[in-house]
């Protein structure tokens, strides 16, 4: 299974669950820039991708997963860093870059611009010389799981199950455990009669 993800998405938990349940099915994970997310799916580079909406959904299945808070990410010396929160009006006088890439980070580091990115990007790519502030009047962005309608990879449904929190008691999971030689967990016995069983939207910060 080949899984793509845009910057800011953390797959640690889902990868761990997959490796526990499907030891014989390797999960190949690769980061793709947001500008390349649709191409990665269309070209078959990945079977599924954690995309940031909006995206052209023609020929795709998508499942919306969660929303992200927009922030302005900038050098500590940038003037907007003096605020606790930022609005569109605050940003109007400054150069704001919305296409996240290594080159745009260079612009921000040297205070040539500020980046408008999801909070997840600023956190996962955290730098000591940069800070972020919430954009309080901006609509949140959404992360979705997407895959091509014509992709018949039999493991797609299983990965959806992992992401959605499905338990390990599916038929295919049990079958894979049998192949790997891992025994199923024994069912807990009921105690016999007479026996005793063994013992978020927070408040907006004020401007400085």
Brief account:
Residues 167-208 are annotated as: Disordered. This protein has 208 residues and is an alpha/beta fold.
Secondary structure layout:
Elements: E1 2-5, H1 12-21, E2 28-31, H2 37-42, E3 48-53, E4 60-68, E5 70-75, H3 88-91, E6 96-97, H4 102-109, E7 114-118, H5 119-124, E8 130-134, E9 141-148, H6 156-163, H7 171-180
Write structural notes for this entry.
The chain is of the alpha/beta class. It folds into two domains: 2-67 and 141-180, Periplasmic binding protein-like II (D-Maltodextrin-Binding Protein, domain 2), CATH 3.40.190; 70-134, D-Maltodextrin-Binding Protein, domain 2, CATH 3.40.190. Helices cover 25% and strands 24% of the residues. It contains seven helices and nine strands; from the N terminus they run βαβαβββαβαβαββαα. The protein has a five-stranded mixed β-sheet. It has a four-stranded mixed β-sheet with strand order 6-7-5-8. The radius of gyration is 22 Å and the shape is elongated. One of its GO terms (cellular component) is protein-DNA complex. Belongs to the LysR transcriptional regulatory family. Keywords: DNA-binding, Transcription, Transcription regulation.
